[in-house]
Amino acid sequence: MGIVFNQSYKNIIIIIVAILIGGFNTLFFYPTFLKAQYYGLVVFLLATSNLLMPLVSFGSQHTIIKYFSSYKSKREKDIFMSSVIFIPMLTIIPISLLVVQFHDTIGNFLSIQNPIIDSYVWVIFLVAFATSYFEVFYSWARVQLKSVFGNFLKEIFPRVSILILLSLVYIGHVTKENFIWWLTGFYYLRLLIMMLYSFYLYLPKFHFSIPKNITEILTYSLFIFLAGSAASILIDIDKFMIPQKEIISKTAFYAVAVFIATVVEIPGRAMFQIVNPLVAKALNEYDKKELENLYKKSSLNLLVVSGLFFLLINLSVEPFYNLILDSSYSTAISVVLIISISKLILMSFGCGPAILATAKFYKITLPFSILMAVSVYVLNDKLIDLYSINGAALSTLIVISFFTFCKIIYLKYKLNIVPYSYNTFRVLILILFLFFLVHPLDFGGNHLIEIIAKSIPVTIGYILLIYQMKVSGEINSFIKKTLSKLGFQKISK
Predict the structure, then answer these.
(1) What is the rounded distance in angstroms from the CA atom of residue 369 to the CA atom of residue 229?
(2) SS3 state of residue 313
(3) Helical spans, DSSP H, in 143-265
(4) Which of 22, 34, 67, 448 is most exposed, with minimal Cβ within 10 Å?
(5) Within a 10 A sphere around the Cβ of 423, how many other Cβ atoms?
(6) Do the beta carbons of residue 418 and residue 299 sit within 8 Å?
(7) How far apart are CA 338 and CA 394, in angstroms?
(8) 3 state DSSP class of 248
(9) Alpha-carbon distances, residue 87 vs 123, 458, 465 (angstroms)
(10) For residue 329, what is the enclosing H or E element?
């Protein structure tokens, strides 16, 4: 787990910086400079492009992760990489033709509730194209076990781009109407940088031949594309459905709450960049011991670190919202808790999703994804009407909880491995204890003092208790090294 921990903590730092930049954008600059209507438009367009992205990429980024380590010779790898880069064209070309042919029909359908959407239909497809190929080249770098720079481009680059554009909107050099077009251009600049970096890491000798197992590759790509398309519905269908049932500004309120809650999954987003290729390698080499080791350690370590993030977010969310200028956004406070619980459940599953996606029984991901997509759509349709945006969050929590349990049972049946141990329950009890101990504390309306007074003691107390409990050798080792670097050698012994 050495390389995992090394790149994971670097990726965590990158994502935290990205979250901070994104926080300023989401909580202050977007509401102030674009207002709720245009902010809701941006959220809708980007969410819809994310729904389309798996269709455009045709699963090629996952195909690279699964098969690259299975080839032994340089020539075989070159032939594979030369072929896989063209897989997205199987869907990009027909989609482009359909958009040209049916642009007006698509625009009319998407803008029934909010006519402002009609003028930006092409943005959905252009961003989906750029994002899809970015993921392809990011996977290209990840199989070389180089995830940090790509993670920087994925997490920080778009947020800095948005910050620059919002500043230009504020001083009048970019209009609110053109903001989204400029942002689309930045997505293509990011793609170009990622492509050049990937070729720097591994430049294949391009061949016109195709891999011997091309049928297997295309079959895998097809199943992962179908599964990914269904899974993306779970991620962004709420932001798509809310504008169909509510005023578009509520999409902005919901997006802010989800943005805050997704801080809980920062450790997972960091770790999976490097763990997933290692999972594929263990499966390709039939190393079950290493696979089980990755499964259990990723589950426990992610639960520990994500648990701290969960506490920091949910113990400070109310005073944090009270610091936001527009009080309308605070109507989504409950969404933060609900979504963050679902994220914590996902983190406790560790690298389970990577095992499902790259094992020989990968086809099971398709029925799982379809059932999850159908379930979240049906629940959203009912619960948004009953509970507005809180209903959308509840739908996500219910679906993630149930199907994560089903996937754990399935992996137990197929591989006889489970992610949880006695230490898992010890960590969960600690998280619950600290949450219910600190949450009721009242600081008399001084919101900034409340955030500081809850966050610092909880962070120190949680880290010390985790260290004393000795639930994770990797985390204890990291704490010791950090304390030693800070000059606390005696404490770290």
Answers:
(1) 8
(2) helix
(3) 148-171, 176-201, 214-245, 249-261
(4) 448
(5) 17
(6) no
(7) 7
(8) coil
(9) 22, 48, 49
(10) none
Count the alpha carbons within 13 Å of 278 in the hemisphere toward its beta carbon: 24
Sign, Cα dihedral of 53, 56, 58, 63: negative
Q: How many CB atoms lie within 10 A of CB 407?
A: 19
Tell me: the pLDDT tens digits for 359-381?
Answer: 888 888 888 888 888 888 888 88
* Predicted TM-score of the model (pTM): 0.73
The answer to whether the CB of 103 falls within 8 A of the CB of 119 is no
Distance CA 346, CA 276 (A): 15
Q: Residue for token digits 């620059």?
A: 164
Query: Could you give the number of structural domains in the chain?
Result: 1
Six token digits for residue 246: 């509510």
Highest-pLDDT range among 93-97, 194-198, 231-235, 255-259: 194-198
- Domain assignment of residue 143, given as a range: 2-492
Element (H, E) at 325: none
C-alpha closest to that of 454 among 474, 434, 476, 473:
434
Please, what is the angle between helix 60-67 and helix 121-142, to 10°? Answer: 10
Q: How far is CA 91 from the centre of its chain?
A: 23
Please state whether 283 falls in left (phi above 0), alpha (psi between -120 and 50) or beta: alpha
- The Cα 374–Cα 379 span in angstroms is 9
**DSSP H or E segment with residue 365:** helix 365-387
